[in-house]
């Protein structure tokens, strides 16, 4: 059986925070604001996994009202979902993501992000695509007030037919 999932997330870009995306610390004078480490890419991917299997969304699994998720490492949040009973027998066919960031330039960091994410899903980096685009200086994203990410993926369960 095949299932597709999509995820989208956006976080505000502010001073005094680290910029962490795809589990990688990207050097920049600002970082993303959130209850967790605000890893916008991993949040979109987590929502895509949950969406593929109709399991709700990241905020339902890890409420931002809970102290235990304050400053949480989003790698661990995604790992928790992937290790859950719901994901048993499901594996990633492919993942395709787009980060919308006016700044900083991300091209140099995308291979490291692909590596982190491929390891999490136990696939090779060939199954993990991450692209970056600006917002052509338009609107809030174009003014670098935040960074957004979109993820699309396909999961397969070979123990279930159709
Ligand atoms: N934060 C970003 C945004 C874009 N890139 C790379 O630059 C290319 C051109 O971006 P446009 O938004 O003008 O299309 C894009 O295709 C990416 O390769 C980047 O590295 N980091
Ligand atoms: C990850 C969680 C939990 O720490 O907090 P944030 O970092 O604020 O991120 P968001 O994308 O709003 O999603 C869900 C949250 O509950």
TrEMBL record:
Q: Which reaction does it catalyse?
A: 4-CDP-2-C-methyl-D-erythritol 2-phosphate = 2-C-methyl-D-erythritol 2,4-cyclic diphosphate + CMP
Known EC number = 4.6.1.12
Named cofactor requirement(s): a divalent metal cation
What Gene Ontology terms for biological process does this UniProt record contain? Answer: isopentenyl diphosphate biosynthetic process, methylerythritol 4-phosphate pathway; terpenoid biosynthetic process
Question: Which pathway is this protein assigned to?
Answer: Isoprenoid biosynthesis; isopentenyl diphosphate biosynthesis via DXP pathway; isopentenyl diphosphate from 1-deoxy-D-xylulose 5-phosphate: step 4/6
Q: Which InterPro entries match?
A: MECDP_synthase, MECDP_synthase_CS, MECDP_synthase_sf
- Binding note for cofactor: Binds 1 divalent metal cation per subunit.
Gene Ontology molecular function: any one: 2-C-methyl-D-erythritol 2,4-cyclodiphosphate synthase activity
For this UniProt record, give its keywords in alphabetical order, as a comma-separated list.
Isoprene biosynthesis, Lyase, Metal-binding
* Family to which this protein belongs: Belongs to the IspF family.
> Which NCBIfam families did the record assign?
ispF (TIGR00151)
**What does the record note on quaternary structure?**
Homotrimer.
Protein name in the entry: 2-C-methyl-D-erythritol 2,4-cyclodiphosphate synthase
Which organism is the protein's source? Lentisphaera araneosa HTCC2155
């Amino acid at each position: 059986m095949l299932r597709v999932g999509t995820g989208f997330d956006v976080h505000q870009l502010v001073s005094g925070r680290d910029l962490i995306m795809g589990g990688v610390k990207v050097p920049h004078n600002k970082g993303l604001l959130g209850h967790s480490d605000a890893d916008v890419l991993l949040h979109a991917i987590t929502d895509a996994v949950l969406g593929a299997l109709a399991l709700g969304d990241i905020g339902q699994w890890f409420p931002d009202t809970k102290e235990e998720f304050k400053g949480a490492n989003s790698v661990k949040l995604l790992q928790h979902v992937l290790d859950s009973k719901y994901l048993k027998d499901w594996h990633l066919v492919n993942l395709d993501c787009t980060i919308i960031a006016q700044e900083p330039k991300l091209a140099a960091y995308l291979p490291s992000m692909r590596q982190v994410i491929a390891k999490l899903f136990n696939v090779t980096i060939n199954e993990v695509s991450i692209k970056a685009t600006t917002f052509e200086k338009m609107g809030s994203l174009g003014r670098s007030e935040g960074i957004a990410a979109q993820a699309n993926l396909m999961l397969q369960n070979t123990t279930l037919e159709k």
